[in-house]
C-alpha cells in the first residue's frame, strides 16, 4: 500500500532441495531430524511466498535470499571452486541456478516466483523446463551455462561466505533473520513476525 514507515530487512539462508515430500506440517525445530528438507520447501510455499505477496507492494521489506544452506565450497588454484551440498550434486546445481537467477534479475519482485518454482525440483533439466523457459526475464542458455559453470560456482561460494559470516553460525535450514537477528518463530509465522516490526503496520497486516 506504499504508506511511509520503517523498512525491515529479511534474510533467508536456504537450500534448493527437499529430500522428502512437502505434505506434512511443521514440527518444532527439535523434532525436525530427517524432516528438515521437506520443511525448507514448506517454508517457502507456506510462509515466504504469502509474506511476499502480502507485503511486497508496501516497499517496506528488504527481501534477501541466500541459497547455500549446509554446502561447502573450496577455492582451487585456478580460481574455480569445488562445492559439495547437503543433499548431493543436484542440490549444488540448483543452488547455483538460484544464485544465477538472483544475480541476473536482482529485483526480488521479479525473481521470487522463479526461486519458489526451482525450490524442490529434482534436477536442473526440470528446473530449466518448468521455471526458466517460461520466464520472459531469463535466457535458458545463459542460466544453464551459469548454473553448471564457474560463474555459478563462484556465486555459490559468495553465498557461502555470507552464510559463514553469520553469528551465531547456521546450524539449521532455513535460517531466518529479521533486522540482523535470528527469529526462530518466523519459520512458523513469517508474515506475523514481519508485521510486528513494521511501524506503522501497513494495511496488509490488519
TrEMBL record:
InterPro entries linked: Interferon-induced_GILT
Domain of life assignment: Eukaryota
Spans traversing the lipid bilayer: none
GO molecular function: oxidoreductase activity, acting on a sulfur group of donors, disulfide as acceptor
Alphabetical keyword list: Glycoprotein
Entry's family note: Belongs to the GILT family.
Protein name as annotated: Gamma interferon inducible lysosomal thiol reductase
Organism (species): Pristionchus fissidentatus
